[in-house]
Design goal:
With about 475 residues, the chain is of the alpha+beta class. It contains 16 helices and 17 strands. Its EC number is 1.12.1.2.
């Protein structure tokens, strides 16, 4: 028995590896996607005031920070029973559009596109963002401009480009000024043109690599996403799950997610494996994110993105091909820019009624300790990688007693694992595998744009993290299991 290891998987957010086991004939007997890092934010939240959660959770990740901020804010709204005013909801959605423009452009141009522009077999020294800059400097500049526009939108609405702070219980802490609105409206309109040019470069690549689209990461799954009466909806709405034929299997409100989603632990990864509870594991495997959203919805309600969506559906129907995540991501990138323009052209976006307050004070800490009173709130938004669930339970004083976070990357975990295994079985025959073949296994993972810092929490409730403290002589003086 021989093992091939690809470590680390490159051009993703976080740390992971792929292992492939070969039998004595050189054929693949098994393969897995391993996530080795772990973060304890569910535990970090315990004992914190729930209103602090929207400021704590963005620190989970420097890429998905806005998504965590907003999902956390929605969960906190639900804990207190507060519905934000119209302007606050629009500001939050606009902040999320900034996140999409930033995140989708970053992933496609800098992480995913090198495989398509440079080619899967290109020298790894060139198959990266530096290679993109050398080969097509204008495309690289366009990508940088697009990403920067997303960051400027987030800054104007969220107060900071990274780890925004303005979403608070019951609404927003900061209104959008007329001057800010005018500036970022021009930015959003410019983004539409930049994205249109980028899609013009990208679309021929999907034809060029049609064989790779057919063969890499084969898996057939259910799909889940939020939707608004069939329309693409990224900030709000019930979650809908469809089967491979597009038929609805489930549709449920965020607070009811535990009736439909369950998580399983496997020994080769710190990342859990969510599945559809009523169908079972592994048959209840479902995928989320850009491809899932375009499969679930019936329409994309902005002009240019709608036209792109129509072409996509005419060509692929209910698409199972993993590499089409890249194509779907570009369609959503266009939608995010167009939706940002719509929001900014709405006069309500500069309104000053941006927060609703609690009518009655919470219990004191002392009274809460003597009471069985509990409050619970669940928030779900569509983060760029898929539905992001924040679920908090507090005592009567609003102190978090339990937190559960289920992120999109976890929901795609089983599909990534299956995709790697099936791709390896199809392509590897013999002990020697080329750099390009190894990269094709990485391409399966890369297509999902996994965010592993967000995705890993605690394993079976017990942390595998051990801190050893040694003295100056190197002798162990203390060991602590965190």
């Amino acid at each position: 028995m021989k093992q091939i290891e690809i470590s680390p998987v490159t051009r993703i957010e976080g740390h992971a590896k792929i292992t492939v086991q070969l039998d004595d004939s050189g054929n693949v007997s098994d393969a897995h996607f391993h996530v080795m890092e772990i973060r304890g934010f569910e535990k970090f939240l315990e004992g914190a005031a729930v209103e602090e959660a929207p400021r704590i959770t963005p620190r989970i990740c420097g890429i998905c920070q806005t998504a965590h901020h907003l999902s956390s804010a929605k969960a906190t709204d639900a804990v207190f029973g507060l519905k934000p005013p119209e302007t606050a909801e629009k500001l939050r959605e606009l902040m999320l559009m900034g996140q999409y423009i930033h995140s989708h452009s970053l992933h496609f141009y800098f992480l995913g596109a090198p495989d398509l522009i440079m080619g899967p077999d290109a020298d790894p020294a060139e198959r990266n963002v530096v290679g993109i800059i050398k080969k097509d400097p204008e495309l690289a500049k366009m990508a940088i401009k697009t990403r920067a526009i997303g960051q400027r939108i987030t800054t104007a609405v969220g107060g900071k480009p990274i780890h925004p702070v303005t979403a608070i219980p019951g609404g927003q802490s900061k209104a959008l000024t007329t001057e800010e609105r005018e500036k970022i409206l021009l930015d959003a309109k410019e983004a539409i043109g930049l994205i249109e040019n980028g899609i013009g470069v990208a679309k021929p690549l999907f034809e060029q690599y049609s064989e790779a689209i057919e063969t890499l990461g084969p898996v057939e799954t259910y799909f889940g996403s939020l939707t608004d009466n069939g329309n693409l909806s990224l900030y709000d709405g019930p979650m809908k799950v469809i089967d491979k034929d597009g038929s609805t299997v489930h549709e449920f409100e965020p607070a009811d997610y535990l009736d439909y989603i369950e998580e399983k632990v496997q020994p080769w990864s710190y990342l859990k494996f969510p599945y559809l509870k009523q169908i079972g594991f592994p048959e209840g495997n479902y995928r989320v994110g850009p491809l899932a959203r375009l499969n679930v919805v019936d329409a994309v309600p902005t002009e240019k993105a709608s036209a792109l969506y129509g072409e996509f559906k005419d060509t692929y129907g209910i698409a199972q091909n993993t590499l089409l995540y890249h194509y779907a991501r570009l369609i959503e990138l266009m939608y995010a820019a167009e939706r940002a323009v719509e929001l900014l052209e709405d006069d309500a976006i500069t309104g000053t009624d941006i927060r609703n307050h609690l009518n009655e004070p919470l219990m004191s800490r002392k009274d809460a300790e003597e009471s069985d009173a509990k409050m619970r709130g669940v928030g779900i938004i569509e983060a760029p990688r898929g539905p992001l669930i924040h679920d908090y339970e507090t005592d009567g004083a609003g102190i978090i007693q339990r937190a559960n976070l289920i992120v999109a990357t976890g929901q795609n975990n089983l599909s990534m694992d299956i995709g790697v295994r099936e791709t390896a079985k199809a392509l590897i025959h013999g002990d020697e595998i080329s750099e390009g073949l190894k990269n094709r296994l990485e391409m399966v993972i890369r297509a999902y744009d996994p965010c592993l810092s967000c995705a890993t929490h605690m394993l079976n409730g017990e942390s595998p993290l051990v801190v050893d403290i040694h003295d100056s002589e190197g002798d162990l003086v203390k060991r602590r299991i965190i």
